[in-house]
Structures are given as structure tokens and as C-alpha cells.
Amino acid sequence: MRRAVLQIHRWTGIVLGVYLITIAVSGSILVFRQELERSPWHTRRAKEPFAGITAVVAKLHAAYPRFRIVSITLPNQSDPTFVAILQGRGRLKVASSAAEGEVLGEFPARATWLDTVQGLHETLLIPRRGRIINGVGAAFLLLMSITGLTVWWPRGRYWKRALTVDFRRRWRRVNYDLHSATGFWTSLLLVFWALSGIYFAWPSQISQVVNSISPVVNARPPAIGVTPSLDAAHPDLDKMVARAASADPGTRLSGIGFPYGPRAPLEIRMRRSGGTSREYEDTLYFDPYTGDYLGIWRYGVNRSLGDWMIWLEAPLHFGTSWGLGIKIVWAAAGLALPLLMITGSLMFWNRSLRRTWKRLRRNRMQTEADCPTAAL
């Protein structure tokens, strides 16, 4: 059984080696996207108080009368300006000053190298099928991680040796220890990355499986709709923001999502203390025709084991929710996967291919010795 498991582990790594290196390296780069990606206005300082959201909306409408505002994000650590997404003949990303709300200009429309890295990581640059292919690859990564732990499992007094690397040994032994110890110390993250990769490929199906184990109560957004009204006047946006702050005390405004259709609500996002990512935002829903408050979704405030299982998929996969230290750990663990591929390939050479190569070379030399004219 151990030999069969070893063969599964070995050949999964050989077949998927280049793919897994690509996913691992691109993922490690994306952990630091916030630090690597700079907006044209990154040197500005975002000092409070910020401009009123109504003033920002009015100036955007004046500058882009034929475009619809999709969303507005307030100044934060990543962008010291208001950032608006506009939809018209194409999609624009526009910056407005933090203090006055004046339109500063558009972000570059061309894709950056980081956009290419993200596309490679998420979909392998294959728009329709790439995410599914990644889901299949994640399933094989899970198989490789489980079989690797099975093969690694030491016996008796060999536990200490299985957890460390003895650099005093010959290079083949050091290579083996690197593969063994690195695989163990990163196994938990590798298994979780595999599980979350499967979830991102099939979120609805995995949510149903999780819900059968423990009910998913708050990890998914609520289904909230509104009744269109042609006669209703547009409600005061500032009043809805004030109502959101009153309904969700201890938070601060982080952004607004405008209705994407006639039956869609207006979304006001409020940030809780403790983090800067999406996992720390509450979404409050309002009727865009009457201004009535409809409900709240506290994403990350989990009420069941199922909620935790779904919610943890994003923050634990990306590693960007808990500061620079965790980012460094996640990026280093991601680069451990190429190390495992390289050391595994060298082990395959040492244990199998090297012997085959020596045998073929010896047979060739013997043939040349028996028949000198064969070398001509």
C-alpha cells in the first residue's frame, strides 16, 4: 500500500509540476499586490474629514453625464482618493480627491503586469474554463498533499529526523530532508489552499455540501429585492448614509454600491474595526426609490460552523487580512511548493532515472566494446 501511495504521489507531482509552480509563484506575488500596485495619485494624503458622498456623486455625474455610477469606495490605506467605477460605453475607474471630491482623472485602462499575474492565477488566462481547470488542479493538489503525508509518516525513533534538515549530510540526503520537512511544515496550508481552490471553482455545490454538515446562516449574502417605482423621487443619499451609521454603530462608511437593475437595492458598506479587507465590512441595504432601510449583512460575523467554513475560504486562501507578517508567511509557504517540485524531481532522478541512465550508458559502452564499429 505504501508503494502504491508513493507512486500516486510521485506521478501526480511529475504531471502537474509546471502547473503547480505557476500557480504557487503567481499566488505569492499576488499576496503583495497592494504593496506593488500604485495608483497615479498614491503620493497624496487622505486627511479627514472627507468630502460628502453626495458632492462626489454630483461631480462625477457632471464630468461623465452619459455614464452610470456602479460603486464608490472611500479613501483608505490602498488608495488615498475616492475610487468610482463607471459604466457606459465601456467601464471606467475614476479617482476623486479626498477633501473636495473633485474628479482627478481616470486610472489607466490598459492591463498591468499584475492583472496578467492575477488572470494567470485565477483562470490560467482561459476566461470560461480556467477556473474549473484550477478546481481540478486543486483536487489533485489535495490528493498529492494527502499521499505525501502518508508517505512521510515516520516510524519509531525517526520522528525528529523527519521534521528537520541535516545540512551536514551529502546533497542527496539534504535534498530528501528538504522535501520531507518542507512538505510537513506546509502541509496544513497546502491542504487548505487545495480545498479553497475547489470551493472557488464550484462555490454553490460546496456550499450545499457544507450546509448538509452545518447550516450556512450568514456566510452568503441575503436575497433582497425592491419594487420599482417610477413616481418616487430620488431619496437623499446623505440621509441613507446617516441611517446606516445609526443602524450599525461602531462602524464607518467604506463605500456604496448603486443598484445594478430596477429591482436591486442600494448597498452601503460600513467597515468594522479589526481589519481592512472585505471580510470586515457590513452591507446595509436600502430601497433606492423610497430610502427605506431593508436589512443588513454582517459578512464575517459567523453564526455557525458552516458559516466559518465558508467565510474562511477567502481570508485564509489569500492571506491579506492580518497584516504584513502573515503576508510574508503566506508568500513563503507559496514558494515552498516550487521547492517541493524541484526536490521531488531530484529525488525521482536519484532513485529511478539515474539508475536507468547508468544502465543505458553501461549497455552502450559494453556494446561499443564488443563491436567497435557500432560507435561509427
How many DSSP-defined strands? Answer: 8
Task: Please give the alpha-carbon distance between the first and last residues.
Answer: 48 Å
Q: Give the overall silhouette.
A: elongated
Taking strands numbered 1, 2, ... along the chain, how are they ordered across the largest sheet? Answer: 4-3-2-1-5-6-7-8
Mean pLDDT: 89
* Secondary-structure element string: HHHEEEEHHHHHHHEEEEHHH
Describe it.
With 376 residues, this protein is an alpha+beta fold. It is 52% helix and 13% strand. It has helices at residues 2-30, 33-36, 53-63, 113-123, 130-152, 159-163, 171-185, 187-201, 203-213, 237-247, 305-311, 313-318, 324-370; strands at residues 68-73, 82-88, 90-96, 103-106, 252-257, 266-271, 281-286, 293-298. It has an 8-stranded antiparallel sheet. Helix 1 packs across helix 13. The protein is elongated, with a radius of gyration of 27 Å.
SSE layout and pairing:
Elements: H1 2-30, H2 33-36, H3 53-63, E1 68-73, E2 82-88, E3 90-96, E4 103-106, H4 113-123, H5 130-152, H6 159-163, H7 171-185, H8 187-201, H9 203-213, H10 237-247, E5 252-257, E6 266-271, E7 281-286, E8 293-298, H11 305-311, H12 313-318, H13 324-370
Helix pairs in contact: 1-4, 1-5, 1-13, 5-8, 7-13, 8-9
